[in-house]
Amino acid sequence: MTALSYLVIIFGYLALLLFIFGIIYRAWRWNRLPQGFSWGLFPKPTRWVVTSMLWKILAWPTLFKADRLLWAGALFFHLGLLVLFAGHLGSFIDIASLGERIGIPSESSYVIGITAGTIVAITILFYISRRLFIRRSSEISVFADHFWLWVLLVVVLVGIYSRVFHEVSSDAVRDFALSVVAFNPALPPQNFWFLMHVLLSEFFIIYAVIGKPIHLVGQLFTQYILVSEEGS
Amino acid sequence: MAKATLGGVEIEVDDDGFIQEPDKWNKDVAEDIGKIEAVLEPGQDKMGADHWTVVDYLRNYFLEFGIAPPIRMVVKKSGIDLKKIYELFPKGPAAGACKVAGLPKPTGCV
Amino acid sequence: MKTDTENQADSQAKAVEEYEKTLERWFGEATKEDVQKVIDKLGEWEKLPYSKLVKLNLDLCSNCGACADECHIYKTLPRKEFNPVYRVKLLRSVYQKYFTWVGKVFGRFAGARKLDKELLKEWFVRFYQCNMCRRCNIFCPFGVDNMAIVRTGRLLINDVMGKTTEDMGRGVRYHLRDGNASEMSEAAFRNIVSFWEDEIKEVKGWDVKVPIDVVGAEMFLIPPNTDYFHSLETMEGIAATLYAANVSWTMSSKIFDSVNYGTFFNDEAWASIITQHIEEAKRLKCKTLVVGECGHATKSLMFLGPSLLGEFPFEVKNILQVTADLIQHDRIKLNKEANPETVTYHDPCNVTRMCGIMEEPRIILRAACMDFREMTPNRDRNYCCGGGGGVVLETASHDFRMEVTGKLKAEQMQRTGAKIVVTSCANCKVEISHLIDQYKLDMKWAGVHDMVLNALEL
Ligand code: HEM
Ligand code: SF4
Ligand code: SF4
Questions:
Q1: pLDDT of residue C392
Q2: Residue among C438, C436, C431, C430 at smallest CA distance from C229
Q3: What residues 111-130 of chain C have any CB closer than 8 A to a CB of chain A?
Q4: What CATH number is attached to the domain comprising C398?
Q5: Which residue among C170, C192, C430 places its CB closest to the CB of B107?
Q6: Are residues C79 and C226 in the same domain?
Q7: Would you call B98 a catalytic residue per the annotation?
Q8: For ligand 3, is residue C242 a contact (CB within 6 Å)?
Q9: Which residues of B touch C (CB under 8 A)?
Q10: A215 CA to middle of ligand 2, Å?
């Protein structure tokens, strides 16, 4: 179990490093390239330009028009992810008491977490089945598309499983997480399923830089090009 | 580029059968292309007067201006309406009649 | 006995196969060096004037396939090879192989592919099957513009091997040599102009003189070559409109063809044709350069040109904007009763999605026709006519256009029940006229200004 603990710590730092510098690097790579052509797409917003860009980035109206099912699935998926991320902040700060202050009893954290996890798992299954059974999607999917979905599914399922059957006290998690952030790592809670969940999630953070979640950063550039009058 | 024997002479033609050496064109060449592109009167083996009105107009315009004239101009100036032109040359004025008249293939959105 | 559907599928398959064979023949064979040069060029991102967008597109597409059903080609014939994502992945996989470390390390598993002669040939075939209409673009959740990638692929092949499709390549050669794509001399130009004048006289009884080479005129008009050969009424309508509104305008006896096929595959030729237009506009000291009913030229001169070559010392407008403006300021009088038939409008991709000219044609048609009816979908969500991206320029693409790329448009036109399909782009007019013949539709085609010509009164 200690070998696993060290792995978790080492990969934790690696993931953090890659995440921060990876995103900066990719944004820098995009940004330095020329966009001499004005390549907008009409109709362009003439007022509320920033708002309409944000709307496009956050609500995906274009996808809504093209594929409503994917839009709905992806929306639930991302909202679920969002809730999960928020919950994981609990590993660093005491969000339970924060939640109580805005009226969410700390006991519901369990229900919210499991529900969000289940939604994400279901929507991942939806993604996978799209890629398997819908022709226009299956005929263009490559191994990596499937692979990451399965990784993600395993991450979430392991997370749910460890929460349900091998609950680790949130204080213990927080002590460990803060020690890592303070560059003085303590030994993590010795629970196999918990450690697996953390390790896999660290892979996911690395994936975030090379895989689909980088969309959020790329979108800022693309949407700007699509609304801008001149080249950028 | 392929070669074809038309009117007794060897002439280069492109993929669509347009001749590539406009100087070698003469009436016999036209008659030979016409065997493929033109609809002849029953019992005839040569093109009729209407065929020649269109072909001559196209040819003379080409010699003067270096291009094929607009279709509407052909109709108006030759006095043969479009429907009739399609009866004479089923592929139409551009792909049919121009080919017989020895014009190069028209380019662009025309 | 085969059913109708089977017969149709057969003729479709045949049309595709034949055009693909032709494209392969035009491409010929690539050498090893060609392949290497294409890879090297792909690595020189900084030199491509819009590489930011292309790289974003290559990096961001998630292979979700949401765009596929929005492409009229894939919708008509849902073959894997016509899936927009399959098409652009031909290039993306090569980019991944040589320029991303994920592709380098994980290779095929990450979708990366080595470029070889066969793949390069497939690039040529597939990229010249795309209509570059950018309809897929508006539906993508990440704003991925498949057209930008298709154009990049065409560009790379043309830069390295000098290859493009036949008639388009010839058009560009002529354009660089003569200043127009149809080998027209000044004498031919003047001859056709006087034919326009005769025709206006015939239908309107007006003595309209088309001003030529008038230095200092307010507007300098350049119509596409189609208006000289295929849709003369359009240019007659424009000349009559400007005459009726008493606008100060001119044409040029040297530069009278707006088309610019470089737009579709070659930046150098494209820029030098634009430069021809700009230099002539400067010589004539016009205030506004007006592009006739021509989609890609409007996009080129209005947006791409200034952003690449620097601001122009004059304004660029499309004739639709000019005429709509004249109508709104009551400078011309239109009598709707001259156009009693039901009219519908096909939104050309370049005029609409890429230049944002959507309401102007409607203002004009509502003022000039009794019964104007929308096609669905319309405006920015219209389908391409099937001729875009230079596909319509090839005689050899006819069956492919009729059976595959234009089929949806034919059905759409028929559903409107209109008697006249109006459009404002030279390419679309040609394609639509072919569709009407092919599908024996009970309708005619026309340009926007053809309708204006009928309705115009002094
Ligand atoms: C502008 C922001 C975003 C948009 C428009 C967006 C859109 C989408 C869409 C449409 C899908 C489904 C695609 C498919 O079927 O492959 C997807 C998948 C996904 N998104 Fe996002 N997303 C955004 C931001 C994020 C962020 C910030 C994350 C962060 C963690 C994220 C994580 C994922 C993951 C993990 C998947 C599934 C992965 C896969 O298929 O490999 N997304 N996204
Ligand atoms: S640009 Fe048009 S033709 Fe090309 S893939 Fe997209 S929708 Fe299809
Ligand atoms: S281009 Fe956009 S819509 Fe099409 S597969 Fe890629 S991400 Fe999906």
A1: 94
A2: C430
A3: 111
A4: 3.40.50
A5: C170
A6: no
A7: no
A8: no
A9: 15-16, 64-68, 70-73, 95, 104-110
A10: 22
CATH number of residue C34's parent domain:
1.10.1060
User: Could you give the CA distance from residue C41 to residue C99 in angstroms, rounded to a whole number?
Assistant: 12
Q: Is residue C337 located within the same domain as residue C406?
A: yes
pTM of the model: 0.92
Q: Is residue C374 located within the same domain as residue C261?
A: no
The closest residue, in CA terms, to atom 5 on ligand 2 is: C84
Q: In the predicted model, is pLDDT for residue C405 greater than 90?
A: yes
Q: Residues C359-371: what's their mean pLDDT?
A: 96
Query: Using DSSP, how many helices (H) and how many strands (E) does chain C show?
Result: 23, 10
Integer Cα distance of C425 and C445 in angstroms? 12
- Tell me if B109 is assigned to some domain: no
Q: Whose CA is nearest to atom 6 of ligand 3?
A: C61
Class of A3-228 per CATH?
Answer: mainly alpha
What string of H, E and C letters represents the secondary structure of C338-394? HCCCEEEEECCHHHHCCCCCCHHHHHHHHHHCCEEECCCCCHHHCCCCCCCCCHHHC
CA of B106 to the centre of ligand 2 (A): 28
CB contact under 8 A, B70 and C228: yes
Residues C320 and C367 in one domain: no
The more confident residue out of A101 and A81 is: A81
What pLDDT does B1 receive?
Answer: 60
pLDDT in tens, A158-188: 999 988 888 788 888 888 888 888 888 888 8
What the block records as the tokens of A198 is 């953390």
| Residue C168 forms part of a structural domain | no
Any idea which of B69-73, C187-191, C421-425 has the lowest mean pLDDT? B69-73
Distance in Å, alpha carbon of C223 to nearest chain A alpha carbon: 23
* Inter-chain touch C187–B65, beta carbons under 8 Å: yes
Cα–Cα distance for residue pair C137/A41, rounded to 1 Å? 8
CB-CB contact of C82 with C12 (8 Å): no
- For C189, the closest chain B residue by CA position comes to B65
Q: Count Cβ atoms below 10 Å from residue A102 Cβ, excluding itself.
A: 6
- How do beta strands C333-334 and C288-291 pair? unpaired
Query: Confidence band (pLDDT; 50, 70, 90) for B108?
Result: very low
Query: What's the whole-number mean pLDDT along residues A95-109?
Result: 76
Structure tokens at C285: 């000291």
Min Cα distance C403 → chain A (Å) is 21
C454 to chain A, closest Cα gap in Å: 31
The structural domain count of chain C equals 3
- Give chain B's domain count: 1
Confidence tier at B109 by pLDDT (50, 70, 90): very low
Asked if the structure places residue C112 within a domain, the reply is yes
DSSP state of C55: H
Q: How confident is the model at residue C276 (pLDDT cuts 50, 70, 90)?
A: very high
Last residue of a domain, one of C313, C328, C343: C328
DSSP letter for C334, please: E
Structure confidence at residue C125 (pLDDT): 97
Full domain range(s) for residue C143 = 4-163
User: Given B67, B72, B95, which is nearest C182 (Cβ)?
Assistant: B67
- Chain A segment 207-226 residues within 8 A of C by beta carbon are 210, 212, 214-215, 218-219, 221-223, 225-226
The residue that leads in pLDDT, C123 or A41, is C123
Any domain includes C89: yes
Q: Do C437 and C450 lie in a common domain?
A: yes
Strand, helix or coil for residue B60: helix
- Tell me the best of C63, C70, C83 to mutate to test the pocket of ligand 3, counting ligand atoms within 8 Å of each CB and taking the most: C63
What pLDDT digit, counting tens, does each position of C219-232 carry?
Answer: 999 999 989 988 99
pLDDT reported for residue A185: 86
The answer to whether residue C410 sits within a structural domain is yes
Which of C56, C62, C85 is the best mutation target for the ligand 1 pocket, counting ligand atoms within 8 Å of the beta carbon and taking the most?
C62
Let me know if residue B110 belongs to a domain.
Answer: no
Return the pLDDT at B110.
44
Residues C214, C311, single domain; the answer is yes
CA atoms within 13 A on the CB side of C433: 13
C59 at the A interface (CB within 8 A)?
Answer: yes
Look up the CATH number of the domain holding residue B52: 1.10.10.370
pLDDT digits (tens, 9 = 90+) for C337-353: 999 999 999 999 999 99
C182–B64 CB contact, under 8 Å: no
Of residues C195, C226, C232, nearest to B109 (C-beta): C226
